[in-house]
Amino acid sequence: MDEKKNYKAAPSSGDEKPVDNSKKVDDFFDKLNKGGALESSSEGGARIKSEGYDPDYIDLADYGTSDTGYVSLKNGRGADSDVRVYNKGDVSKANGSKSAQASKKTAAVKKTGAPRLLPAGLFGKAKASKAKAVKSEGEVRSKSRRVWGVIGRVALFACCIVIIAVCGVSIAAAMYLAQVTVDDDEILDLNSLELSYATRLMAYNSETEEWEEYERLFGDENRVWVAYEEMPGALIEVTVASEDQRFWEHAGVDWIRTIGAFMNEYVPFLRGRIYSTTQGGSTITQQLVKNITEETEVEGSSGALRKLREIYRALTLERKYSKEQILEAYLNTIRLGNTVAGIEAGANYYFNTTTSELTYAQSAAIIVITKYPTAYNPFIDPDENKNQRENVVLWMMHENGALSDTEYQAALSESATFTFDEPGVGRAGGVDSVYSYFTETAIDEVLDDLQEINGLSSEEAITMLYQGGLTIYLTVDTSIQAVIDDVAENGEFWPDLEYETDSETGEQVLASDQIQAAMVLMNFKGEVLGVSGGIRGKEVSRGSNYALLPRNTGSSIKPIASYGPALEVDAITYSTMFADQAVMTLNGQEWPRNYDHTYGSSVTVYDGVRRSLNTIAVRVLQLIGPDFAFDFLTTNLGVTTLADSVQTSSGIVSDRGLGLTLGDLTYGISPLEMAAAFQVFGNGGTYYTPHTYTRIVNTRGEVVLDKTKNIQEIQAISEDTAMIMNKILQGVITSGTGTSARYGSMPLAGKTGTSSDNSDFWCIAMNPYYVMSVWEGYVPTVKYMTTIRPHPTQLAFKAVMSEVSEELEYINFPTSDNVISASYCTSTGNLASDACPSVATGWYKRDNVPGYCSHVFVEEIPAEA
Question: Worst-scoring range by mean pLDDT, 502-511, 728-737, 779-788?
């Protein structure tokens, strides 16, 4: 059977002309027989192979030509079908089959187990039932082919539509990503991330000779960057095990998790079944992207687009940065509850340690917080944090072989000891924290300098300070500051809190007006070493810092307003005599009056300062003039709060008057500026701008501001004047108004002061190492204070200075070779002769020495009318 023939069934329309089969069938039969197409059948007859569908056969159990040209054929299933043979060799169903009229189209008979058909008359008469069965099965196969054809074409069309749609979506996504990620090179630059970083205030530890963090400033986030090299292996292992176990293998996106997360979120019958949350697909790299961009959309199309951006950015990051760089950035950008951000702040806050010291258990306790900063926060729910760190993270690491049995048990034992009672040092400086007075003093100075020196606006300066990740090196001496804090909080030195009766309830309540105090201690280079802006503790940040607020100085201003400038211009000497009498009559009263409302005999400059006589100070000021004194204070001594000419409701006021030397000022001078002005009497006459820091460095290690290059260094007075004025001020402490401040054997010099209305008390004094100012007064209302002896300001100075100087080597104040000592007559102020009944030692400039005494007393100067 080399030649294959395909017999097709054709519809019977009733118009075709039957064929005379007698000879054609015989000829065809002979051909088939000769070609070997016929074989004997076990059923007795012959069978012919179904061409093209071997080895299926059509059994010809009974054949022959009927009168109507039909043959009876039996197929393999035993069904009969009648067929009629036509001229073209096609066959169609006869005998009035139900499907005869419906089968109008020609279809190839496929392999379905149905028989192949032969022309009628080939084998004689066939059974009509067999031909009918073949016809029916052909139609079924034909319909099946048509249905599958339609399905195939629809499927192909659908595939084309899907491909076109995918291409369109891909193009749209590419265009979208190109647009929304145009600034990513800047935003996702891991070498200079634009994040909110905490500013660290650093203090030098003289014992360890290292800089240590003193306090921290931040706005919404407390974050300090830590390099990957400083991160312990325990932290790295815990992070990867907890957040992204295939971190080291994938290229930024874990596609298995991503697809699962997509189905978990967007396939209805799978929603929430794959992952319990919508975070199931995020790798560490993707979480880093989210931390940087702060994009958090989850639901709907916004969530899908956000995820698309996140995936694209994660893949980009992995191409540009190493795994170590990505992990470093991730651990520095994580949020850990409250204002804590980044692993360093987390280590500080939760364990009062640093990143480099974190253990497995500590790392696990911190890292689990990233999943749910509220639910897993150990200060909020310590039990849940314990469950997560022990039963999830540490257990999983043990199961995966990351922790040996010994390490695992050690981590569990350590974890069991954790207690979370109070936050660690990383909390300092937050929105819920209280800054120290030194920190607040430094804040004010830094903000001013960033604006005046660096040219920033107020808003820019604030942003840089609280979010710029600056490192500020302070001048604070922590041991001195601790002593000052103790004295400020010690009720032994200060009056008790005052109470008043509530007019409505009759109960005793805290009075609104209370006595406050401030202290500032610095060295003779202008470096502020300790500050207290208030007493009895500090309860709020950025409240009133009385160390920086101007107050009436009383007599404490006399050395810098009258005596110092007058000595500098040689208007007076150590022993110049002045009459202790009123200078003028003012509003019908003699002015000025001394503190005790008395006058006396003439006295020297030394005694006038020692006894704090107002009359002598005013007379000295008359010699040099108020304008000279005003300019000297503002230009040479850095005083910034004097009023030159100010319009007020009562008229124009100015501090350019004789009242300047009595501290009768429009605004006053702050304790900080008073201490800075007095430093010239202890360091040879040089004024240094008072400062609380030396330099500011940014996150890249670049110096933002070098304070040492912006400090005024002015030779305010000569070494000669400084030495003589210091000798005069020593008399205040040894035998004058400041004896309560005296301690030890080291030389001390200073000046006290009390305002005319007893609203302010001062003590500004020094030893050869430090100068310190102490102020006390009522706030917020300026009101009369009862004079206390010994006065708290002097006692506070003594308590602080004696302790901070206890172990210091004994030294003297600076001297000048141009200053000589000589005996003078206490009655005339001139150099003493043998005839003088009373003499004392004074110090003089070589070129400004008084003449020798002839023992003629100085005439009293009458009061001016």
Answer: 779-788
DSSP letter, residue 681: G
Q: What are 317's two structure tokens? A: 């990051």
Q: Which two tokens stand for residue 829?
A: 């102020």
CA neighbours within 13 Å on the CB side: how many for 762? Answer: 35
Of 610, 602, 645, whose CA–CA distance to 729 is shortest?
A: 610
Contact status, residue 404 vs residue 508, Cβ threshold 8 Å = no
Contact of 667 with 417, CB cutoff 8 Å: no
Q: Regarding beta strands 471-474 and 199-205, do their DSSP bridges make them parallel or antiparallel, or are they unpaired?
A: parallel
E strand or H helix that includes residue 509 = strand 508-510
pLDDT for 754-767, tens place per residue?
988 888 999 999 99
Distance CA 130, CA 82 (A): 5
Residues 239-248 have a mean pLDDT of 91
Q: How many CB atoms lie within 10 A of CB 790?
A: 12
Identity at 636, one-letter amino acid code? N
3-state secondary structure 794-856: HHHHHHHHHHHCCCCCCCCCCCCCCEEEEEEECCCCCECCCCCCCEEEEEEECCECCCECCCC
Determine the pLDDT at residue 786: 76
Q: Is the pLDDT of residue 633 over 70?
A: yes
- CA gap 798, 67 in Å, rounded: 147
For 400-518, where are the alpha helices, taking DSSP H only? 405-415, 437-452, 458-467, 478-489
How many other C-beta atoms lie within 10 A of the C-beta of residue 525?
16
Shortest CA distance to 674 belongs to which of 563, 795, 762, 783? 762
Alpha carbon distance 126, 83 (integer Å):
8
Asked if 672 and 690 touch (Cβ cutoff 8 Å), the reply is: yes
pLDDT of residue 237: 95
Predicted model pTM: 0.74
Q: What single letter denotes the amino acid at residue 148?
A: W
CA distance 558 to 754: 11
Average pLDDT, the chain: 81
Mean pLDDT (whole number) for 839-860: 84
| CA gap 120, 651 in Å, rounded | 138
Supply 141's token pair: 């196969």
Contact 343, 226 (CB under 8 A): yes
Q: What is the largest CA-CA distance in the chain?
A: 184
pLDDT at 264: 64
